[in-house]
Amino acid sequence: MEKFELTRKYIKSIQKAIDRKDEKTILEKIDGLHPADVAEILDELDIDHGLIILQNMDGKRASDVIIELEDDIRALFLDRLSSQEIAEQLVENLDSDDAADVISELPEDKREEVISNIDDVEQASDIVSLLNYEEGTAGALMGKEMIWVSDDWTVKTAVKEMRRQAEQIDQVYTVYVVDANQKLLGRLPVKKLLTTPVKTRIGDVYREDIRVVKTWTPQEEVAQIMEKYDLVVLPVIDELGRLVGRITIDDVVDVIKEEAEKDYQLASGISSDVDQTDTVWQLTRARLPWLLIGMMGGMLSALVIGQYEHSIKLIPAMAFFIPLITAMAGNIGVQSSAIIVQGLANNSLELGGILPKLSKEFSVALLNGTVLSLIALVGSYFVFNDFQLGLTVSLALLTVIIVAALLGTFVPLMLDKYKIDPALATGPFITTLNDIIGLFIYFMIGQLIFTSL
Amino acid sequence: MEKFELTRKYIKSIQKAIDRKDEKTILEKIDGLHPADVAEILDELDIDHGLIILQNMDGKRASDVIIELEDDIRALFLDRLSSQEIAEQLVENLDSDDAADVISELPEDKREEVISNIDDVEQASDIVSLLNYEEGTAGALMGKEMIWVSDDWTVKTAVKEMRRQAEQIDQVYTVYVVDANQKLLGRLPVKKLLTTPVKTRIGDVYREDIRVVKTWTPQEEVAQIMEKYDLVVLPVIDELGRLVGRITIDDVVDVIKEEAEKDYQLASGISSDVDQTDTVWQLTRARLPWLLIGMMGGMLSALVIGQYEHSIKLIPAMAFFIPLITAMAGNIGVQSSAIIVQGLANNSLELGGILPKLSKEFSVALLNGTVLSLIALVGSYFVFNDFQLGLTVSLALLTVIIVAALLGTFVPLMLDKYKIDPALATGPFITTLNDIIGLFIYFMIGQLIFTSL
Q: How far is CA A338 from CA B141, B316, B424, in A?
């Protein structure tokens, strides 16, 4: 099976089948599709059409589809289902971590109703314990479904017990070894089971080299660990070292993508997680705040330039290079801050404090600035045939480049030091700040040169 | 074991131990560390110190460390090793995909020398076949190490054969089922092995629901498939449907991160893959090209404004709002293009052509533009007490916002249509373009209003 390609034609034909209540065609259309594919179809349909498709699927498959829906679409579907339906048809078919995710998205009162409707006491208590972990921690990310064996069992007992546990689990990644107090001791590679005599004690063959996180480890750190050590699954322990859950790589891939996208969106001046399929209203709301910052910056810039109205009257050509100065200040600032933000996100900055990084950035800015200001000197002199103007633009550009680069490096490092997301410093924020400072520098140097030369 | 934290103190102490040839301390320091951690240490040391650490490790572990080094650092190490050392000490300890990666990084002549020095004929031929796949395809990403069984074997034969195969493989993810011609039929879940009688024919118990890619599938698509369907491993087939390799999630996590980082860097005006630890020279080279684009844009802007020198002489206040216009044009353009680029990267754009997307973007721009231009009207009127100026700024802003939004949406969509990376349209490129167009609009509207009112 290869990748499923959703087309407009496909959507139209399934809409038609639903409208004429042609259940056979509906079933044929979605038969054999992965739940993620069906979810993609539902994301494009309206809710009533979508509900009909779900009703035509069996409970387990319908539950898998609901998990794969986009958050805002899923909320619409959950809104249409009663607490009992959610508990009995949806939650009982899901892994504990997915079930907890769904329940945590419900309104408070419905949440409790759903939990009280779950028949399986063990599952209900798993879900309640998962709901207690703070969002963004390993505890909130983990699932309870895993296979574990005790160190004092024989391989034979272990295999028997594993068979029983495996029935409830889709995919076996790693078998964990715990002691009598459920304290995590290590892991038993699946291939060991294929190669060890059945009477061997687990305690004699398990491996201790296992990496763990605590329930309160932040999800960014979980992602870094799994990525760095190429892990597919990572066990989670509590304060007493007891095995309480496991995090699988697919959940972490989502975290990695979310983190990267958040930084990208902040750098592009989009404040919350939106994409092109959201409504005009959602898109506007996500973009307006940063535009207002840019607007305020533009007004402040107008006030700065206003102070030099006299210079502009005398030398209107001073105004010609305003966009050059602000554009370069902005570009340099964004470059510098992006390099720092990405370094912080990847945990790959050079060791040492802020000072060595600023001095390196100073060297880069000096190199770039020298090249660019020489070009500016020659360019502006030849085009406008005015040496004083050329000198002003060139000197201002060099100064602005260095200041913008240092600010672009300094601001995200400082934010990070005070536990504020450094990505906030990229994009519109750093450009606006550098615009204003750059204009100050430009007009100050201009005044100096034109009055003294 | 939790995450290893590299500190400057640690680096200093290991440097000292190496300098006084204190092998015992060196070994103590790195004992029990994951190869990825040792690689992190080596990234910080100079090459001679690093080589001494590698010489003190056993061959398998040293090989794993070399794979984990950053590309540029690894090149330095490989440069110090002879072809024979690379073949016999490094390559033979590696999985085929890692070995092919290392060899593909070598200079052409050394590459052949290394391959001719590999003793294991099977491994050598695996590597040669992997080297033939184009970079960026599934073939180049896959490894040869996997476990497969034939559909006409019994479970007992299969388990015996798997034990043999498993000895050479670190981690068992999925067992593939092939026919006599090595054509991929399906998969055998590990848990089935725990629950099926030993005399059953594999052909009767395997599952057909398996997702595959072709050797020539682009790596971006591989990543999308594994992400969407939450896969840990994905088999690769050739033109004849034969199983030729498998791709594991850890390699794909790297692809996902690289893709996201590339887009982020392009949007920030950094042209190649650099980070803060690179040299001043590398950083300058990666940043200068985009700055030159900004520079040219600034010069063109100067020429545009130069056409309106007369207006500026008459109404110097026109110059005050130049930064406001360019900043808003830039911010809007970056927002719009970022939303499109991210949508394309995630394959999550709404169905339908370019037109519906432009019309949605138009609505968003109209909403944002109305709010912002009203603020601009009130703000500029009250601060500068000039109705004509306020009207000019306000009308220009609305027009500029709409044009910039449409361009920001249109340009990346067109680039993508013609198979050019749409991320090229973000950042400095779109800001520069919008700056120039925005200034044209601003001064044209200004001339119109001041001469007609």
A: 28, 36, 16
- Cβ contact A269–B213 (<8 Å): no
User: In chain A, what percentage of residues exceed pLDDT 70?
Assistant: 97
Structural domains of chain B, with CATH: 14-135 (1.25.60.10), 147-258 (3.10.580.10), 280-452 (1.10.357.20)
For the sheet with A233-237, list strands across it: A213-214, A233-237, A243-248
Contact between residue B262 and residue B273 where contact means Cβ atoms under 8 Å apart: yes
Band of the pLDDT at B453, cuts 50, 70, 90?
Answer: low
Alpha-carbon gap, residue B333 to A428, rounded angstroms = 12
Which residue reads 């006491």 in tokens? A121
Q: What is the dihedral of CA A420, A425, A427, A433, to 10 degrees?
A: 150
Backbone angles phi, psi at A187, to 5 degrees: -135, 160
Classify residue B176 as left (phi > 0), alpha (psi -120 to 50) or beta: beta
Look at residues B51, B46, B214 and name the one whose alpha carbon lies nearest to residue B142. Answer: B214
Please give the full DSSP string across B364-383, using - where no structure is assigned.
Answer: HHHHHHHHHHHHHHHHHHHH
SS3 string, B85-130, reads HHHHHHHHHCCHHHHHHHHHCCCHHHHHHHHHCCCCHHHHHHHHHH
Nearest CA in chain A to B337: A268
- Please answer whether residues A303 and A403 qualify as being in contact, where contact means their C-beta atoms are separated by less than 8 angstroms: no
Pair A206, A187: CB distance under 8 Å: yes
Residues A44 and A141: their CA atoms lie apart, in Å, by 28
Residues of A in contact with B320 (CB under 8 A): 301-303, 305-306, 309
Q: Give the closest of B264, B351, B428 to A260, CB-based.
A: B264
Q: Do B264 and A269 touch (CB under 8 A)?
A: no
Mean per-residue pLDDT over chain B, rounded: 87
A323 and B276 within 8 Å at the Cβ level: the answer is no
Start-end of H helices in A132-241: 138-141, 155-166, 190-195, 202-205, 219-228
Count Cβ atoms below 10 Å from residue B351 Cβ, excluding itself.
14
Rounded (5°) CA angle A31-A37-A38: 60
Asked if B334 and A270 touch (Cβ cutoff 8 Å), the reply is: no
Paired residues of A186 in beta bridges: A177
Q: Which residue does chain B place closest to A162, by CA atoms? A: B194
Asked whether the beta carbons of B363 and B349 are under 8 A apart, the reply is no
| ipTM of predicted assembly, 2 dp | 0.78
Write a three-state SS string for B6-44: CCHHHHHHHHHHHHCCCHHHHHHHHCCCCHHHHHHHHHH
**CB under 8 Å to A158, separation ≥6 — which residues?**
A149, A150, A175, A188, A193, A202
Check A326 against B326: CB less than 8 A apart.
Answer: yes
pLDDT digits (tens, 9 = 90+) for A271-286: 767 777 788 888 888 8
- Name the residue facing A338 among B260, B265, B340 (closest C-beta): B265
**A392: amino acid identity, one letter:** T
What three-state secondary structure class fits B245? strand
Q: Do A7 and B351 touch (CB under 8 A)?
A: yes
Does the structure show a pLDDT above 70 at B272?
A: no
In degrees, rounded to 5, the angle at the alpha carbon of residue B140 between the alpha carbons of residues B135 and B145 is 165
Residues sharing a CB contact under 8 Å with residue B290, sequence separation 6 or more, in sequence order: A331, A335, B269, B270, B271, B427, B428, B429
Q: Supply B16's token pair.
A: 């000292």
pTM: 0.79
Please tell me which of the candidates B172, B298, B305 has its beta carbon nearest to residue A319. B305
Asked if the model's pLDDT at residue B167 lies above 70, the reply is: no
Q: Which two tokens stand for residue B308?
A: 């309106």
What the block records as the tokens of B361 is 């973007």
What value, to the nearest 5°, has the Cα angle with vertex A50 and ends A45 and A51? 160
